[in-house]
Write a structure and sequence with these properties.
Layout (H helix, E strand, L loop, with lengths): L27 E8 L3 E5 L8 E4 L3 E4 L5 E9 L2 E2 L16 E6 L2 E6 L7 E5 L9 E2 L5 E4 L7 E6 L13 E8 L3
Antiparallel strand pairs: 1-2, 1-13, 2-11, 3-4, 4-9, 5-6, 5-13, 7-8, 7-12, 8-9, 10-11
């Protein structure tokens, strides 16, 4: 698990870098984005942040480029919106993208090249620098109790949202790296 610590020199420290690790890299890295009176980002199984790079002010990229999507869960108020499908209709052997809309901004989790790699892109309305620490070391939140909710979760550009936008939506992307 990553310990998130704040450093003045890197904007990425606002979100995901620097600090001692309690465990080394695990084969699977779950990334959770969910409602919580604000939008909450939880990254687990990351090895002290050394495998993440900030690109500009809008992207985090996992540097182990040959990892792949191994699981995806989307729930709303605890109900499985993927109808039991372990990858929610995504073919993990092809490029994939999940867009999470929060208020007027978007967080996109996707493969980097073909079906490999992992990156998070933040729209200008949800910049990396405005995510704040929570009481949990590997979490950041945006909105700081603004009462807004995830408005939609769309997979691979689908017109259909897997979230009705009433609160309680959560997406968990599991990224597996070779061991």
């Amino acid at each position: 698990m990553i310990k998130f610590t704040l450093t003045a020199s890197l904007p990425l420290a606002i979100l995901l870098l620097c600090g001692p690790s309690q465990t080394e890299a695990q084969g699977a890295t779950p990334i959770t984005i969910k409602d919580g009176g604000s939008i909450l980002l939880h990254a687990d199984g990351l090895d002290a942040g050394k495998n993440w790079k900030v690109i500009g002010s809008s992207e985090l990229r996992h540097l182990i480029a040959n990892g792949v999507l191994s699981g995806l869960q989307i729930t709303e108020a605890g109900a499985d919106r993927c109808a039991g499908n372990a990858t929610c209709g995504i073919d993990p052997s092809k490029p994939w993208k999940i867009q999470v809309t929060y208020n007027a901004g978007v967080v996109t989790v996707s493969s980097v090249s073909a079906n490999k790699g992992l990156h998070l892109k933040f729209s200008a309305k949800i910049p990396i620098t405005q995510w704040q620490k929570t009481a949990t070391a590997d979490e950041r939140e945006f909105g700081h109790g603004d009462g807004r909710h995830i408005g939609s979760i769309k997979v691979n550009g689908s017109a259909t949202s897997l979230c009705a936008g009433k609160g309680g939506c959560e997406v968990i992307v599991t990224y597996t790296t070779p061991q």
